[in-house]
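# step 3/5: fold
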Amino acid sequence: MIIYGSTFSPYVRKAVVFAAEKGIDFEIQPSNGPAAPPEFKLASPFGKMPGLKDGDFAISDSTAIITYIDAIKPDPNLIPIEAKARARTIWYEEFGDTMVAACGGKIFFNRVVSPKFYGRPGDLALADQAQNTEFPELIAYLEGVMPASGYLVEDRFTLADIAVVSPLLTMSLADCLVDSGAYPKAAAYVAKIAERPTFAKLIAREKAQLSA
C-alpha cells in the first residue's frame, strides 16, 4: 500500500496515522511537483493530497482512504460501532477539517510553506489574524467539550482524536500553540495524543525537515 503526500498536510497525517494505528504495512511517497509519480494522478485526478494505491485500487481524500482502510482491517476499532459514538466521531473528523479551513491553512502556508518551500514571503498579517481570531474560538470549543478521560469519544483513542490533533500539530510547527493557561484541558489533550508513537515519529521527522 502506498499513501501519496506530505505529512505536513493534516489530511495526509490523518490518513497516515490511522493506517499506522491499524498496523497496516504502507509507504509514504511524495506527490508534489516533479516528485509526483504518475500513479498519484490516477489516485487523485485533481492532484489533491492524500492519494492511496493498494494493488490495482486507487482513491483520494483522507476520509475515503480511512473508510477503505477501516473496511479491510477492522481491528483495532478506531471508528465506534455504537450509533451516537460513531456519529460523534465523524463530527469530530469534520471539526478537524474545519480547523484547517478556518485558520490552519492560513497559518501554516504563510509562515512555513510560502517562505520555506516557495522562497517568497507569506502574508504574515493574515496568519496572525487567523491565530488571534479564528483559532481561539475553535480551541475554546475543544476546551468546553473535552471529557475527563482526555479522549473525545468513548473514553478511548479513536479517529476523532487523530482528526482533531492532526491540524493542531501542523499549526504548532508554525508557532501556533494551544495556550495552556487559557485552555488547560485542550493543551493537555494535544500533548497526550502527540506522544503516541504514530504521531511522535512524524512530528520529529517534520521538525528535522524544517530545520534542515
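# step 4/5: annotate
Residues 149 and 155 are 5 Å apart (CA to CA).
# step 5/5: archive (pending)
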